[in-house]
Design goal:
Structural class: alpha/beta
Helix content: 25-40%
Number of helices: 6
Number of strands: 5
Shape: globular
Largest sheet: 5 strands, mixed
Radius of gyration: 14 Å
Distance between the termini: 15 Å
Strand content: 5-15%
Number of domains: 1
C-alpha cells in the first residue's frame, strides 16, 4: 500500500471516529467513507459563488467565525494554501487561522491537517501544539 493510501486511511479513520458531524472537509471522500454528512460537496464552487448566493445558515466564513464546524480538514497548513487556487477564500483561511487550531497531521493529499475550534483545542491539548499528532 502506498504511503498516501496509508495516510489517507489514517485521516479517514480520524473523521469516521470524530465525535461530531459538523465537519468541513476539502476531501469529501473522507466524509462519505466516514459516514458523516457532507456540508459542502464542492468547496471550489462554493468559494467561486462567494456571497452571491444567500445561504440560510450563513456563509462558510460566518459559520467558521461562529465556530460552527467542530472539525475542518484541509489539504495543507494555512500558510501553504493559496486563495488563488479557488478552493478556499482568503477570508475563510483568515477566519480559520484566528478561530481554529491544528490538532492532527496526515500524509493524505486533500486531508493533510485537521483543525478544531481554538477553545476546544486549548481545553483538549493545552496551548502547546507539540502534543498534536503527526501521522
Amino acid at each position: 500500500m502506498a504511503a498516501t493510501q496509508i495516510g489517507c486511511a489514517h485521516a479517514y479513520d480520524f473523521v469516521r471516529t470524530f465525535g461530531s458531524d459538523r465537519i468541513l472537509s476539502e476531501d469529501v471522500g473522507a466524509l462519505a467513507l466516514g459516514g458523516k454528512p457532507v456540508v459542502v460537496s464542492n468547496p471550489f464552487v462554493v468559494t467561486q459563488l462567494g456571497n452571491s448566493v444567500v445561504w440560510r445558515a450563513g456563509t462558510m466564513e460566518e459559520l467558521a467565525q461562529a465556530r460552527y464546524f467542530d472539525l475542518i480538514l484541509l489539504g495543507g497548513e494555512l500558510k501553504d494554501l493559496r486563495p488563488e487556487s479557488g478552493v478556499w477564500s482568503a477570508d475563510l483561511m483568515k477566519v480559520i487561522g484566528h478561530r481554529y487550531s491544528p490538532v492532527r497531521y496526515f500524509q493524505c493529499p486533500c486531508a493533510r491537517v485537521a483543525y478544531i475550534p481554538s477553545t476546544a483545542h486549548e481545553r483538549q491539548w493545552g496551548k502547546d501544539l507539540s502534543n498534536a499528532g503527526h501521522d
